[in-house]
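Q: Here's a chain of 116 amino acids. Please give me its 3D structure as C-alpha cells.
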Amino acid sequence: MGFDHVPDTGFADDDAGGPAGPTPEEHAAWADVRRRATGMTHHEAKAAREEARAAARSRSLTGPDAVRARAEAEEWERVTESMADHAGPYDPRCDPFVQGEEAARADHGGRSSRNR
C-alpha cells in the first residue's frame, strides 16, 4: 500500500499515477532540519517549528524556495511530534521514523526512494 496523496509533500499513492516521492530538495531540507534539531529541547524545536511555519506561509517565496520552506516546516512538525512523549534533546538516533528509514535503506540495498 502506498502513501495517500499529500499535495505539500509530493507523496502519492503508488497506484494513483502521482509523484513517486519526495524531491531531492525535500530530502535536503529534511536532513538540514534534523541536523539543526539535534541537541535541541522540545521547547527549542517548537520555536524553530513556528519560524519554519511562518516562512512556509510567506507569499514572497516561490519555486524551489517555497518547496524547501514547506518541507522544512513539515519536518519540524514531525520532529516536535516525535519529541512530545520523551524527555531530553532531539537525537535522530532515537527517532523511530529516522531509524525506520535507515532499516528500509539497508533492506533495499541503500536505494530507498522514500528517504525522508
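Q: Can you summarize the key feature?
A: Residues 63-83 form the longest helix (21 residues).
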